[in-house]
Amino acid sequence: MSAITRDEVAHLARLSRLALTDDELDHYATQLDQIIESVAKVSEVAADDVPPSSHALPLTNVFRADEVRQSLTPDQALSGAPAVEDDRFRVPRILGEEA
Amino acid sequence: MSLIRKTAAELGSLIAAGEVSAVEVAEAHLDRMAEVEPKVKAFLHVDRETTIEQARAVDARLRAGERLGPLAGVPIAHKDIFTTRDMPTTAASKILEGWRPPYDATVTARLREAGLVILGKTNLDEFAMGSSTENSAYQVTHNPWDLSRVPGGSSGGSSAAVAAYEAPLSTGTDTGGSIRQPASVTGIVGMKPTYGGSSRYGLIAFASSLDTPGPFARNVLDAALLHEAFSGYDPMDSTSVDAPVPSVVEAARNPDVSGMRIGVVKEFAGEGFQPGVLARYQEAVHLLESLGAKVVEVSCPSFTTALPAYYLIAPSECSSNLARFDAMRYGLRVGDDGTRSAEEVMALTRAAGFGPEVKRRIMLGTYALSSGYYDAYYGQAQKVRTVISREFEAAYQQVDVLVSPTTPTTAFPIGERADDPMAMYLADLCTIPSNLSGNAAMSVPCGLADEDGLPVGLQIMAPVLGDDRCYRVGAAVEQALESHWGGGLLSRAPEL
């Protein structure tokens, strides 16, 4: 039985904001199925009493004083933008989208 | 001896003594690049003028009496995943084609402070995802030992540039082996520092809990000098380790392993390993024993599940990190014709801008993190990560360092694994555990495999902040082998 169906891949592509073609969906369905089957080996190892690690080293929150410091100028921040208007990023419409 | 054959340490001394200028050294390397780049294709971006300008500035700083480090004026090839103010930064992706970052990465800034001269930006697998540099959206880099083979990856442009004498030093990043594996298959030294030992600020993120910048060089001392030049605490990186940089240069100058306890990882040998790789590896272990080290076998049974755990953890983090490429603030934007919504533009841009391996990993990570599968995949992989760290800790109770082959095989032919992700992933079998645990690890050349005459690397793994141990053992192996060979391994590489 396959671990992942073509419909699931289409759903993942939508969640990932990737407009894939039908051919790509077929291709990735086969490959992701193989990869997922192979990585499923992780379930054979760790027992329930093992705590998960998100990082290799213990992490603590890092704080700094809340002081104004030099940062990018508006021109620098906008220097790589695909479209700019009035010192702002110009973006396609974001309202009125279907869910 | 021509300038391009000299070590970085030698070049630094010559420049400091005023016997040669930084400009002359840069020109020698730019000339070499012009000669061999058509065959090797290590660089994505070269700008002769910007490089000469940097060299001129270093010469002026030295003339003015400024005290710079031991690498002042030495040229370096810089992986195109670190931001650079004066050069494009693409991560070898079409989604960042032509992007000029408004700031320098911390690693870049520290190279400049130390007076290193950046020769250009090197090729990589797109966003550092791969083991062959074939996933670059721009070009395929060739292994200087055999141009029909891969230079490893993801930092394959950086490894090829150093092996081809285009640069004495280069930078890389290691998320699952992306420094050690390319170093191994091109016959040079590559070091993954302790996680957090070198800054991720300005390093385009792939998997943030694993990404670690590190050095490439043709010898252990040069690698140590570069390691020291750009490592250390950085307040701009929230996972930076606030501790002194381990004394790696001192260790590289003291290649004494007598009395050291060296653990041979039992699980990394046998099936799936090329016989010529195992032969050179076993010789290196015997060599260490003959130099006075105490060698014991150590079993780390969970290391064999590091690979599947990694291919859940790294894609999960990548799916989240690469969400920033949204076609809004920088990079490519496709399909913005006034009728499409932001979401449609985003999906079209990402489909056009990302290559196949990046798309594969984004979707794999999205799957592993999605509700219903999270516990079975990402959650389980995080538990494996704990188990692997515990096995390392137990091993380091018994030994000072662990050793294994760096890679199961020598450099494979270009195209051989390009359409077989699982075969490609196996190249990182031995390197991944040290990423999951955050340990320091190095690859140092240990000879040529009999069956194909290609380089083999010895991996030396040390505990967190035990980076100096890798350099001590690496330098001992290098010194003994070079006296046996009558020169460095690269002196046996074919002329380009």
From TrEMBL, chain A:
<comment type="function">
    <text>Allows the formation of correctly charged Asn-tRNA(Asn) or Gln-tRNA(Gln) through the transamidation of misacylated Asp-tRNA(Asn) or Glu-tRNA(Gln) in organisms which lack either or both of asparaginyl-tRNA or glutaminyl-tRNA synthetases. The reaction takes place in the presence of glutamine and ATP through an activated phospho-Asp-tRNA(Asn) or phospho-Glu-tRNA(Gln).</text>
</comment>
<dbReference type="GO" id="GO:0006412">
    <property type="term" value="P:translation"/>
</dbReference>
<comment type="subunit">
    <text>Heterotrimer of A, B and C subunits.</text>
</comment>
<keyword id="KW-0547">Nucleotide-binding</keyword>
<keyword id="KW-0067">ATP-binding</keyword>
<dbReference type="GO" id="GO:0070681">
    <property type="term" value="P:glutaminyl-tRNAGln biosynthesis via transamidation"/>
</dbReference>
<dbReference type="InterPro" id="IPR036113">
    <property type="entry name" value="Asp/Glu-ADT_sf_sub_c"/>
</dbReference>
<keyword id="KW-0436">Ligase</keyword>
<dbReference type="GO" id="GO:0050567">
    <property type="term" value="F:glutaminyl-tRNA synthase (glutamine-hydrolyzing) activity"/>
</dbReference>
<protein>
    <recommendedName>
        <fullName>Aspartyl/glutamyl-tRNA(Asn/Gln) amidotransferase subunit C</fullName>
        <ecNumber>6.3.5.-</ecNumber>
    </recommendedName>
</protein>
<dbReference type="GO" id="GO:0005524">
    <property type="term" value="F:ATP binding"/>
</dbReference>
<comment type="similarity">
    <text>Belongs to the GatC family.</text>
</comment>
<dbReference type="GO" id="GO:0050566">
    <property type="term" value="F:asparaginyl-tRNA synthase (glutamine-hydrolyzing) activity"/>
</dbReference>
<dbReference type="Pfam" id="PF02686">
    <property type="entry name" value="GatC"/>
</dbReference>
<keyword id="KW-0808">Transferase</keyword>
<keyword id="KW-0648">Protein biosynthesis</keyword>
<dbReference type="GO" id="GO:0006450">
    <property type="term" value="P:regulation of translational fidelity"/>
</dbReference>
<dbReference type="GO" id="GO:0016740">
    <property type="term" value="F:transferase activity"/>
</dbReference>
<dbReference type="InterPro" id="IPR003837">
    <property type="entry name" value="GatC"/>
</dbReference>
Automatic annotation (TrEMBL), chain B:
<comment type="similarity">
    <text>Belongs to the amidase family. GatA subfamily.</text>
</comment>
<feature type="active site" description="Acyl-ester intermediate">
    <location>
        <position position="178"/>
    </location>
</feature>
<keyword id="KW-0067">ATP-binding</keyword>
<dbReference type="InterPro" id="IPR004412">
    <property type="entry name" value="GatA"/>
</dbReference>
<dbReference type="GO" id="GO:0030956">
    <property type="term" value="C:glutamyl-tRNA(Gln) amidotransferase complex"/>
</dbReference>
<feature type="active site" description="Charge relay system">
    <location>
        <position position="79"/>
    </location>
</feature>
<dbReference type="InterPro" id="IPR000120">
    <property type="entry name" value="Amidase"/>
</dbReference>
<dbReference type="Pfam" id="PF01425">
    <property type="entry name" value="Amidase"/>
</dbReference>
<keyword id="KW-0436">Ligase</keyword>
<protein>
    <recommendedName>
        <fullName>Glutamyl-tRNA(Gln) amidotransferase subunit A</fullName>
        <ecNumber>6.3.5.7</ecNumber>
    </recommendedName>
</protein>
<keyword id="KW-0547">Nucleotide-binding</keyword>
<feature type="domain" description="Amidase">
    <location>
        <begin position="24"/>
        <end position="470"/>
    </location>
</feature>
<dbReference type="GO" id="GO:0005524">
    <property type="term" value="F:ATP binding"/>
</dbReference>
<feature type="active site" description="Charge relay system">
    <location>
        <position position="154"/>
    </location>
</feature>
<dbReference type="InterPro" id="IPR020556">
    <property type="entry name" value="Amidase_CS"/>
</dbReference>
<dbReference type="GO" id="GO:0016740">
    <property type="term" value="F:transferase activity"/>
</dbReference>
<dbReference type="InterPro" id="IPR023631">
    <property type="entry name" value="Amidase_dom"/>
</dbReference>
<dbReference type="GO" id="GO:0006412">
    <property type="term" value="P:translation"/>
</dbReference>
<dbReference type="GO" id="GO:0050567">
    <property type="term" value="F:glutaminyl-tRNA synthase (glutamine-hydrolyzing) activity"/>
</dbReference>
<keyword id="KW-0808">Transferase</keyword>
<comment type="subunit">
    <text>Heterotrimer of A, B and C subunits.</text>
</comment>
<comment type="function">
    <text>Allows the formation of correctly charged Gln-tRNA(Gln) through the transamidation of misacylated Glu-tRNA(Gln) in organisms which lack glutaminyl-tRNA synthetase. The reaction takes place in the presence of glutamine and ATP through an activated gamma-phospho-Glu-tRNA(Gln).</text>
</comment>
